[in-house]
Amino acid sequence: MIPVAEFKHFSEQQPAFKLLKPWWDVLAEYLTVAMLMIGVFGCTLQVTQDKIICLPSHEPWENLSETPCQQLLLQGVPKQMGGLHEVSGLKNNLDLQQYSFINQLCYEKALHWYPKYFPYLVVIHTLIFMVCTSFWFKFPGTSSKIEHFTSILGKCFDSPWTTRALSEVSGENRKGHTTGQATMTMAAEAGPGKAGEGEKEKVLKEPEKVVTEPPAVTLLDKKEGEQAKALFEKVKKFRIHVEEGDILYTMYIRQTVLKVCKFFAILVYNLVYVEKISFVVACTVETSRFTGYASFCCNHTKAHLFSKLAFCYISFVCVYGITCLYTLYWLFHRPLKEYSFHSVREETGMNDIPDVKNDFAFMLHLIDQYDPLYSKRFAVFLSEVSESRLKQLNLNHEWTPEKLRQKLQHNAKGRLELALCMLPGLPDTIFELREVEALRLEAICDITFPPSLSQLVHLQELSLLHSPARLPFSLQIFLRDRLKVIRIKCEELREVPLWVFGLRGLEELHLEGLFPPELAQAATLESLRELKQLKVLSLRSNAGKVPASVTDVASHLQRLSLHNDGSRLLALNSLKKLVVLRELELVACGLERIPHAIFSLGALQELDLKDNHLRSIEEILSFQHCRKLVTLRLWHNQIAYVPEHVRKLRVLEQLYLSHNKLEALPPQLGMCSGLRLLDVTHNGLHSLPPELGLLQNLQHLALSYNALEALPDELFFCCKLRTLLLGHNHLSQLSPQVGNLRALSRLELKGNRLEALPEELGNCRGLKKEGLLVEDTLYEGLPTEVREKMEEE
């Protein structure tokens, strides 16, 4: 016998592929096995047993047919005579070899091809059916997608996250259903006259329902969470890849159509030729020269069995064909290239599960024929809400409260700050750190603050740097009077959340972002009227003018900072309305002259015009109207000279002129009697006016990175000088008069041409070794007693 197992490789698939085999494919597979057994059985009989047995006929060959052969055989049946009978027959005078020769010759010449090849045809047709059924599991273009899909599907089905997500949803649905029933019951019991009491009872009883009937949710460890996260990424990429084409759908239709055509062809020719399987066969061959006979009556020994097998085979083929026709009906009676998760969305409450198309949809339709539960559990990994929940869970695993507490530091304002950067989300564990006073979030996408934010009762400062955030209305009320400082950095200022402008307790607002090019000149900013306590406003953008909404806070704004990153600020008239402004920064605003609107700010105390294009500061005379101005920063510009009427600024205490193009200072600068700090580093000064010695209140003088060759002795009359920076000049000697600076605690002399230091440095009581910045050789050249004095603690 030929074992059927030899043919198994024609239909052998991976065990996981059974998920994509609906009931009709399973039935067809069993039918092909039955048909294959019929074919193998017939082939075995055909090979191992005699095929045909022939006897010579004494009838003339012209009259020979199957009917005379049958009559002749009937005549040879003996008649019963009592209990005895006489055996008689014709003697043919043929030996065994002649009979064998005639049997083989008549088998080839006289027997019809259908009974001759019937078992082989059954085997061949069955193998074709088997190949058609499993071809899409073997074809490279489809098998890779199927293998990938079944692998992902199995992991999604077994993932603990699937169970947890569905349990959470069912728990929420059960809680909502219970709450709804409780509400209806209490409303019915309360009656029209007790509606108020019913509402109170509802508020009291609802929390009990939530606490006493929590959903059973499995816990995920960190490893399981990472595996689920990887599954989400695989599902996303697989969906994009598979939805691009419909090769699986097309291949399945083609192989089904081929099976239907094959079914009709097999059925037709079998019904036509099955009657050719006959027990008696008339054979006429010209063998009289060898045997003495030319006509024979033959018996097809397996005709009776083959007729029964043919009947069974045709029956199986009919059932197989019906399954193929049903498959075609299933393929075309509804669109299988679209799959809707509508029922899953209603059942699970995950309304963001998307519908799919093409091959992805077709495979899910096949999965539903196997078990719809697979699609339901798989849908969890198509939901962005589910993915966000998983990310949140992984975040909570990674960022424990203990780990977050290690990141707590005091910021520049002394607040206890927690800074987080480039996280996939916001860990819920943050809100367990009740001591946090400042929260800094950078490069964290799509933040939605949960209600647990209200646990941060000490939160006063919030920084959102490239971290768009949504804030529920209840939390807006919570932060409205608590938050004092907020910093927002984004690509465009229109991305600033609107809830920011409703924080009426806000004292500092720092915004950084660009206006769209078409809106830059208008520079429209949201209304600031609700910010009743705002004192500091910082705006870093490309505004063409001072935003008009700044005037909404004119009555209480004390500090305004505009950083324009080089874009020219054209209109500054709005500044005139800031009557209580104390500090003003106009940095990198493309200013070529000092704006006249500034001179109207009578309360102004500090002005910073850093990194502009100022060449002349003749308008400095008008600063005498700013009677409270004590700090003037004109650094990082292109100023070539300081006008002599700088003497009018008698109340000025700090003057920054570093990084300009100054070559000399006016003698009138010595009349600024209130000056405590003068910074003229990084210029081209060759000498200093002796009048600087009149600055008796001067405490800090920075002259580094110039071209000074000598210092006037009058400079050392500034007896209150504590810091003197002379590094990187062309000084060849330091006057012994330096000993008059008894308060000096920091002296920089590096990068000069000094050959020795005056021993009078020992008279500077506050000067220690760490405060003297000079080359080691020069320091070693000081007298021993001077060095010992400087090294004393």
From TrEMBL:
Membrane topology: Multi-pass membrane protein
Gene3D superfamilies per the UniProt record, alphabetical: Ribonuclease Inhibitor (3.80.10.10)
Protein name (Swiss-Prot/TrEMBL): Volume-regulated anion channel subunit LRRC8E
Record field: catalytic activity: taurine(out) = taurine(in); chloride(in) = chloride(out); iodide(out) = iodide(in); 2',3'-cGAMP(out) = 2',3'-cGAMP(in)
Example GO biological process: monoatomic ion transmembrane transport
GO cellular component: endoplasmic reticulum membrane; lysosomal membrane; plasma membrane
Keywords: Cell membrane, Disulfide bond, Endoplasmic reticulum, Glycoprotein, Ion channel, Ion transport, Leucine-rich repeat, Lysosome, Membrane, Repeat, Transmembrane, Transmembrane helix, Transport
PANTHER family for this protein: PTHR48051, VOLUME-REGULATED ANION CHANNEL SUBUNIT LRRC8E (PTHR48051:SF58)
Family, as annotated: Belongs to the LRRC8 family.
LRRC8 pannexin-like TM region domain: residues covered: 1-328
Transmembrane segments: 27-47, 117-137, 310-332
Pfam family, one: LRR_8
Gene that specifies this protein: LRRC8E
Cited InterPro entries: Leu-rich_rpt, Leu-rich_rpt_typical-subtyp, LRR_dom_sf, LRR_domain-containing, LRRC8_Pannexin-like
Compartment list: Cell membrane; Endoplasmic reticulum membrane; Lysosome membrane
